[in-house]
Specification:
- By secondary structure, the protein is mainly α.
- It folds into two domains: about 1-35, no CATH class; about 45-205, Orthogonal Bundle (hpI Integrase, Chain A).
- Helix content is about 40%, strand content about 5%.
- It is built from nine helices and three strands; from the N terminus they run H-H-H-H-E-E-E-H-H-H-H-H.
- It has helices spanning about 1-15, 45-55, 60-75, 75-80, 110-120, 140-150, 165-180, 185-190, 210-215, and strands spanning about 90, 95, 105-110.
- It has a three-stranded antiparallel β-sheet.
- Helix 3 crosses helix 7 and helix 7 (about 165-180) packs antiparallel against helix 8.
- The longest helix has 13 residues, at about 1-15.
- It is elongated, with a radius of gyration of 22 Å.
């Protein structure tokens, strides 16, 4: 927004639409905010397949179901936990995520994996993924983190690069960016209220600059 405003003012000055005016957005008078594009932890596709295959071995199928849903929709855990069957449209393969304090309402298309999962899921409650007492889940079962820590070398270290439940949301967004989705598409998919939350994935979107490097230096 600041960059566009700067261009508009420069255009006005250049074409003498305004006179005796210095553009406050040029020359460093107004400092532009820098988006936070720090590294985030996300799974490679190989790691994700390995994790899902491992979770299939457990009698508790909720571990697999929740992981697949988080991975393939990019939703927050609370959004998955609060889903009821009225939010599921198997005919059009759409999931409706209700608005929350942190996120916008949106429809998300079901992947083949999610569609197969939901089609076979037994309806034992109004909630799609209830806890054992049929109430809404608060968090991912603790067993999940134990499994992930054993599966991924060095993951037990607690820092911002550790793969956790929320990393499945980062993984979804990162895969979208690497696949060529633009920032606004990712923002809408994740339900972000502000664009600056989505900008952390901007550096993953394929750039023409990388293609030029390949053409100039790799041929």
């Amino acid at each position: 927004m600041l960059a566009v405003a700067r261009q508009i003012i420069n255009h006005a000055i250049k074409n003498e639409l305004i006179k005796n005016y210095t553009n406050p957005l040029s020359g460093g008078i107004v400092k532009f905010p820098k988006p936070e594009n720090s590294k985030i932890a996300f799974l490679s596709k190989e790691q994700a397949i390995k994790l899902l295959d491992k979770l299939k071995e457990y009698e508790n199928n909720s571990l697999y179901n929740l992981t697949a849903m988080l991975l393939d929709t990019g939703a927050r855990f609370i959004e998955i936990a609060s889903l009821d069957w009225n939010d599921i449209n198997l005919i059009n393969r759409l999931i409706y995520f209700k608005p929350t304090k942190k996120g916008n309402a949106r429809y998300v298309y079901m992947s083949d994996r999610v569609y197969a999962l939901l089609s076979k899921l037994e309806k034992i409650s109004n909630l799609v993924f209830p806890s054992s007492n049929l109430k809404q889940r608060i968090q991912m079962p603790k067993q999940w983190q134990e499994i992930v820590d054993k599966l991924i070398k060095g993951n037990k270290t607690i820092n911002k690069y550790r793969i956790t439940t929320h990393s499945l949301r980062h993984t979804h967004a990162s895969w979208l960016a690497l696949g060529g989705a633009d920032i606004l598409q990712i923002k809408e998919q994740l339900g972000h209220k502000k664009l600056d939350m989505t900008l952390r994935y901007a550096h993953l979107i394929p750039s023409r600059r990388h293609d030029l490097i390949k053409e100039v230096f790799c041929t």
